[in-house]
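Need tokens for this chain, all 314 residues.
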Amino acid sequence: MCYSKLEYCPTAPKVGDLCTIKSSTSCSFNLDDLLSNAIPLSKGAQGQIFKCKVDAHKTLLLKKFPKTNTSESSPFSNEVNALLRLSHPQIPTIVQTFESQNSFYLVREHVEGIDLLSYLNSFHGTSLAEDKIYSIFKQLLSLVSYCHTKGVFHCDIKLDNIIINNDKVYLIDFGLATLSSFSSSASGTLKYTAPEVLLHQMHSSALQDAWSCGVVLYALSFGSLPFDSPNEKDCFEKIIGNVLPQYPAGRGCSNDLKNVLTCLLRKNPSQRSSVDQILSHSLFNQSKTCKVSYRNPTIVKKSNSSMFNRVIRV
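Here are the structure tokens for all 314 residues:
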């Protein structure tokens, strides 16, 4: 299979100005051919996702974005800008882009496996060894750290955007990613979002990602989210208020694990540990065998970014 090799353009491409994404080879895919073999996977606020079988050995993912958002920070532009900076075997590579009258299309590698949300719920209340938690989480931290070194901040890290396949972890969906180290805008998914982001304060994008990683670690450890509530307003108030995450007694959770969670879920970002600081924690340099039992695997549910937008947008 011949792929178009894409070159990174240091200036952010404007929506509709796809000439900044250049192919170094003449090999490319035809949009009509891709759509004719496309199998719809999901449809959300940001667009529609298709799986495209291009031959017996290769499957690609096609993301269709409506031209309703023509800003330079649209999900299409965000994902293109982020993926062109990244080259990592556990982050899907962008292959090609298309533009039609009403839509933008992004073609990237398809990652086999299941999202971490489905993986977590597949245990149906049985125990998960802490060493498995550490293996998954250390890979996630390493991926996020790599992105940060390339000037990319994901801004929507959650169970839904993490794929696991044969014990390998992959980070996907950079539609809300930013190249700005600091921001005052709010983006992400409510239950995974840091308090300073919800409050539209000027904040570190890296520490925003660190908080979200902490929420993922909590979910892996206890089978629920730390500030969960069926009511979005209550969830919002829990995150920005004085409510602290609870660590259920009798779950066999080590003090080291609780310490890492505390460091990542500090509501004051100036006191929160960075991803690199957590990577250097002794927790990831020793083998653990203790078991963690889930409270109720059905408690962790699919996230909804559009709900988040309705809550915090003004």
